[in-house]
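Help needed: design a sequence for this.
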C-alpha cells in the first residue's frame, strides 16, 4: 500500500475523533473566548464592513458560524448563565453587580443574587472533576467581595469556583482602564497557560474587556483607520475599529500557539460576545436596539465554534442557541457527567456540531425583571417559539429610539423573526390567540423556577422615576 502524503495523512487523522465511540475519544481541550459588548456585525464575517477581523473570519471558515446565537443582554447575567448553565430566573443573577435600583419606578424588582456563591457547581468545576485543568484569564464580574470583582477572579479564591488557576492579580492598575484594555496581557497569559498545560486536557476561559467602554487601542492601529477616512468620534470611529482589530490579532496569536504546540486538532474553540453592542454608538444593524435591551440587538451576538474533525468547516447554522447551552454542550464534548443536584437548563449542541439536526426544544426563554434606564431596560421577559418571539414588558416601557419616552404601563410585543429580524412590525394586536398561548407558556416557565415577580412599588414617583438608588 502506498504511504499517505503528509497533507492527506493529517486530513485523515483529523477525522478520527468523530469516528471513534464517545467513550474512547480523547477529551478535547476547550478554549472559551468571551468578549465584551461586541455587537452582532462587529465582526466582518457577521456582516461588518469596517473593522478588519481576519483571524475571526478564518476561525469561522474553519468551523461553525451560528447566526442566531443568544445571550443575556448584559455582562453579569450572561457570565452567570454561562458558568452555571442556568437561566437568570433560576440562578437569580439577572442584575449587573454590584447592585443598584431605581426606587421610584412603577415596579419593585424581586430579590436577586449579588454574587455567585462559593461552591456553585460551575462549568469549570464540572470539567475539573472530569480531569481537566481549568483556568481563567480576564474579566470576572460575578462577585463583588473578597473573592474578586468586575476586573478579575482573584487567584487565591479561584478554587471556590472550580478553577485550578486564575491569572495573577493586576498590578498596579486595572487593564480595563488603560493601555489596550489588557489584550496583550491576556494574550501572553493565555499563550503561557497553553505552554504549561499542553500535556493534559485543559479548559481555558479567556475573557476580554474589549470592546466595553472606555475603548482603547494602539496608536498605530488608530492611525491606520484615520488614514482610511474614519473619524475620531461617532459610530465606526477609528479607536473602536482599531480596538476590534487588535483583539482579533490577539485571538489569532492564541490560535497560532495552539497550532505551534500541536494542540489545534484536539481543541474545541468557542468564540462568543456577552451581549449586544452599545446601542447609541456601535454597529449591530439590522438588529433593533443594543446592550441591555430585550430586542435582538441586545441578545443576539456573533458566535463561532471550531472543533477539528468533528464540526464541519465552513458550516453556517441558523439554529437558535442560548448561552445556557454551553455548559451542557461542553460536558457532552468532554464525555463528563452533569453535576448531581444541579439543574442545567441548556441542551447539548454536540450532535448538531457533528452535522446532525438542530436540538429539539419547545422554546427559548429569558427573564430580566430589572430596571437599567441607560439601556432602556425595564422589567420584562421573552419567549421564542420557532420564528415567533414575544416580549412582555411587565409594568412600563422606555423607548430609547424616541428620546427615552416613558409609558407608565406594560405592553406585549410579537414578532416573526424570519420576516422581521429588525422587530418593526408588532403583530400582537393581530394575533391574540398566539399572544395568549405564548404568554401562558412564558408565565408558566417563570413560575416553575420560583424566581418571583416584580410587584407594584408603593414609592412610585413619576417626577423622580429615573433616580438611581443605593447599591446593594
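Sure. Designed sequence:
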Amino acid at each position: 500500500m502506498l504511504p499517505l502524503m503528509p497533507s492527506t495523512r493529517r486530513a485523515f487523522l483529523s477525522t478520527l475523533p468523530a469516528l471513534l465511540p464517545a467513550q474512547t475519544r480523547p477529551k478535547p481541550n476547550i478554549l472559551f473566548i468571551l468578549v465584551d459588548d461586541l455587537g452582532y456585525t462587529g465582526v466582518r464575517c457577521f456582516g461588518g464592513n469596517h473593522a478588519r477581523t481576519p483571524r475571526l473570519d478564518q476561525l469561522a471558515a474553519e468551523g461553525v458560524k451560528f447566526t442566531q446565537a443568544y445571550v443575556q443582554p448584559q455582562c453579569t447575567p450572561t457570565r452567570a448563565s454561562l458558568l452555571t448553565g442556568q437561566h437568570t430566573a433560576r440562578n437569580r443573577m439577572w442584575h449587573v453587580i454590584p447592585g443598584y435600583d431605581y426606587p421610584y419606578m412603577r415596579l419593585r424588582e424581586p430579590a436577586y443574587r449579588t454574587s455567585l456563591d462559593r461552591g456553585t457547581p460551575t462549568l469549570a468545576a464540572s470539567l475539573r472533576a472530569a480531569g481537566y485543568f481549568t483556568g481563567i484569564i480576564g474579566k470576572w464580574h460575578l462577585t463583588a467581595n473578597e473573592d474578586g470583582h468586575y476586573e478579575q477572579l482573584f487567584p487565591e479564591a479561584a478554587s471556590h469556583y472550580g478553577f485550578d488557576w486564575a491569572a495573577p492579580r493586576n498590578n498596579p492598575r486595572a487593564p480595563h482602564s488603560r493601555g489596550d484594555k489588557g489584550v496583550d496581557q491576556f494574550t501572553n497569559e493565555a499563550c503561557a497557560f497553553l505552554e504549561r498545560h499542553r500535556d493534559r486536557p485543559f479548559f481555558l476561559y479567556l475573557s476580554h474587556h474589549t470592546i466595553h467602554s472606555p475603548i482603547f487601542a494602539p496608536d498605530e492601529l488608530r492611525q491606520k483607520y484615520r488614514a482610511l477616512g474614519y473619524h475620531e468620534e461617532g459610530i465606526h470611529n477609528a479607536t473602536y475599529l482599531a480596538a476590534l482589530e487588535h483583539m482579533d490579532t490577539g485571538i489569532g496569536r492564541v490560535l497560532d500557539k495552539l497550532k505551534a504546540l500541536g494542540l489545534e486538532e484536539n481543541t474545541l474553540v468557542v468564540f462568543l460576545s456577552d451581549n449586544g453592542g452599545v446601542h447609541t454608538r456601535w454597529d449591530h444593524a439590522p438588529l433593533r436596539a443594543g446592550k441591555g435591551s430585550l430586542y435582538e440587538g441586545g441578545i443576539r451576538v456573533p458566535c463561532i465554534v471550531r472543533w477539528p474533525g468533528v464540526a464541519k468547516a465552513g458550516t453556517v447554522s441558523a439554529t437558535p442557541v442560548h448561552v445556557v447551552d454551553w455548559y451542557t454542550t461542553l460536558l457532552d464534548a468532554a464525555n463528563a457527567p452533569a453535576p448531581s443536584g444541579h439543574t442545567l437548563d441548556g441542551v447539548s449542541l454536540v450532535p448538531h456540531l457533528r452535522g446532525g439536526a438542530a436540538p429539539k426544544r419547545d422554546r427559548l426563554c429569558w427573564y430580566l425583571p430589572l430596571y437599567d434606564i441607560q439601556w432602556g431596560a425595564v422589567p420584562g421577559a421573552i419567549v421564542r417559539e420557532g420564528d415567533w418571539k414575544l416580549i412582555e414588558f411587565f409594568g412600563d416601557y422606555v423607548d430609547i429610539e424616541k428620546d427615552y419616552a416613558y409609558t407608565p404601563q406594560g405592553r406585549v410585543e410579537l414578532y416573526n423573526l424570519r420576516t422581521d429580524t429588525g422587530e418593526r412590525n408588532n403583530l400582537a394586536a393581530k394575533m391574540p390567540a398566539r399572544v395568549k398561548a405564548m404568554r401562558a407558556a412564558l408565565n408558566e416557565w417563570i413560575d416553575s423556577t420560583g424566581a418571583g415577580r416584580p410587584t407594584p412599588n408603593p414609592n412610585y414617583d413619576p417626577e423622580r422615576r429615573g433616580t438611581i438608588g443605593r447599591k446593594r
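The longest helix spans residues 238-260.
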